[in-house]
Amino acid sequence: MTARTDDSPMNQAPVTLLTGASGGIVGALAILLAQAGHRLVLSGLDQPGLDAIAAEATATGAEVATLAGDLRDRDLARSLVQLAVSRFGRLDHLVTGAGASRPVPMVEMEDEEWDRLVDLNLSAVFRISRAAARQMIEQGEGGAIVHVSSIAHANGGANLAYGSAKGGVATLTYGMAQQLGRHGIRVNAVAPGIIDTPMVRNGFAQQFNALVEGAAVRTPLGRLGRPEDVANVIAFLLSPGAAFVTGALIPITGGIEILSPISTIAKGA
User: Fold this and answer.
1) In what helix (H) or strand (E) does residue 146 lie, and over which residues does it extend?
2) Contact between 227 and 25 (Cβ < 8 Å)
3) Which pLDDT band holds residue 193 (cuts at 50, 70, 90)?
4) Active-site hit among 161, 162, 188, 233
5) Which of 68, 80, 95, 145 stands the most exposed, by the fewest C-beta atoms within 10 Å?
6) How far apart are the C-alpha atoms of 48 and 245, rounded to whole Å?
7) Does the global pTM surpass 0.85?
C-alpha cells in the first residue's frame, strides 16, 4: 500500500494522528501505517502501551510522537494537533479509535456512567475532529478522517450509552463528510463487530469462550475478528485507493449482522 494520502504533497510522508493507540485495533493500525511510511502521533490512556506501540513502529523506521491523556480533557484535542504540527509541520490524517464500554443493563446504569461514556465515545470524537479539521483546512491540501464506530450503533450493544454514542459517531461521519468535502477532506467510518481486543476480552472475561463458540455459529466467516481485519480497512480508507470514498460507514463484522437462514437456525448450527 502506498504511504501517501491523495492530498499530501508528493515529497512528504503523511502525518497521521491516532487516538486509542495503546493497543487493540488502533495499535495494530499504527504498526501497519508505520510500515507504509506514515509519520505518527499516538494518543491513549496507557503510556506503557503507547511506548510499546511506538517502539515497534520506530523499529520500522517511522517517526513517532506520543502524548498520553484522557480525551475527556477538553484541552487534549488541541494539544494533540499542536504536537503534530510542532513535530512534523502538518497533519494529514485522523483516526478516532479511543473508546470504552462495559456490559451493563440500562436499569442498572447511573447517570455518571452514561455521561462519561457518551463524552468519551462521541463528544471527544467531535472535539478532536474539529481540531484536526481546522488544521487541515488551514493547510489547504485536504486530508482524510476515519472514525471507529461499532456494530452497536445498529443494535444498541451491551451498553446503551456506548451504542448510542456510536450511533452518534455514524451521524457525525455523514455530517462531516458533507461539510468538509469542499475542502478536500474525506470522512468515513468503520463499524467493527466482535473483535478480539482487550476491551472485549476484559468486558466479557467470563463469557469469552462462549463468544468464540457463538461467532463460529452466528458469523458466516465462522470466527471473531482480529484487530488487523479492521486496521487494513482503515488503512485503505486513508489511502489514494479511497480517493472517491467519503461519507461511508463500512461494517467489519464477518457478516454477523446477517440473519441466518431459518434452516440453519432450526438445526441449531
Assistant:
1) strand 143-148
2) yes
3) confident
4) 162
5) 68
6) 35
7) yes
